[in-house]
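Protein modeling request. Please complete all fields; requests missing the sequence field cannot be processed.
Requester role: graduate student
Desired output: 3D structure, token encoding
Chains: 1
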Amino acid sequence: MFRRIIREINAVKERDPAARSTLEVLLCYPGLHALFFHRIAYFFYRHGLKLIARLTSQFSRWLTGIEIHPGAKVGEGLFIDHGMGVVIGETAELGDNVTIYQGVTLGGTGKEKGKRHPSIGDNVVIGAGAKVLGPIEIGDNSRIGAGSVVLRSVPPGATVVGIPGRVVFYKGAAVPSINLNHTDLPDPVAEALQRLQDQVDSLRFQLGQVEKGVAHCDFKAL
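Delivered output (222 residues):
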């Protein structure tokens, strides 16, 4: 438990340039406080004390603005930045070194029993306001763009943007382990429009060359 707390403090210091000291992280980071209470709630939940677990979870929610169901499985090194409005459902599973920004929901899509929340791989970054819904899998080293709504599984090393979320690869290469840039993401619609514009410009140029050639031939004929 103590080793995990140290790792999570270090995760904050590594990924947030505003974190100046260990004492500041301990006192001023609600994401860390929410994780601390979740570890306690999860212990109660696994030992069948589910009411106490839920009460612990609700107290944490009131204190931090972050709601993590006591049944959620959370790996090491999770960093919840700012955190207000984050919701993590009962059957959600998070790997190691996951980074989550404010307003993120790891939720379900209905009232079905069993596994109904997403599984998040290692080194995943989920941007502000993103919604990842249903029993889907988000592969290791993936990035979910701010405001995206993800309803389908995502392969490792991919970037997802849009509503509904669309997978975009960086030329087939895996995203680096922990890349916190979740705002400067490719826009596939804009890229497609730009390609069309480039083709139109090319056709205009070719047409202009043809017109010049025709005019030149007419001049010689005269």
